[in-house]
Amino acid sequence: MGLKNKKKGVFKSENITENVVLRDLNELPPSYYIFNDVYLQLSRPVRYRKSEEYIKTCRIDFVVIGPTGLFIICTKDWNESLLKEVDMAGLIFYIKTVNLFHSKLPIYNVAVMLTKVQKTKYAYVHHLSLKQLYWFILRREGRLSKKKIKRIVRRLVRMSKKKFIKRDN
Description:
Blueprint: E1 2-5, E2 10-13, H1 16-25, E3 33-47, E4 54-66, E5 69-74, H2 80-101, E6 107-113, E7 126-129, H3 130-138, H4 146-160
Parallel strand pairs: 5-6, 6-7
Antiparallel strand pairs: 1-2, 3-4, 4-5
């Protein structure tokens, strides 16, 4: 959950981990848009990857949209369920964007840890240290045009009823 500091107009979160990650995300070039605390909901539940679980909603710590793709970023402390939560959020985000844009977008699910990155394998989630996050975003092969980025940002603002974080770059 984000708060705005009235004196400086600087975004601050109640979550210390989110603040640390946001500080690094703010170093990205201005062509990247950052959303915080995004809540998405599907019109009906969908089955989660060959399991008996159904999902309908998700809350995402950060969504970053830029020339190299869309990044679903969760920043909670490490636990086994974190990777599954990130994967579920990515699935909902994928469904929402495919339906809107009728094409596959380069979407990356990322779990960021401030402590040592666990060696657990999880098929659809990249788990990274804070030091790895910046370069992971900049070095992806996905290429989105400025026009496509603007369309995605406008849609996400409407879908989530959130505005992106304005940065001084």
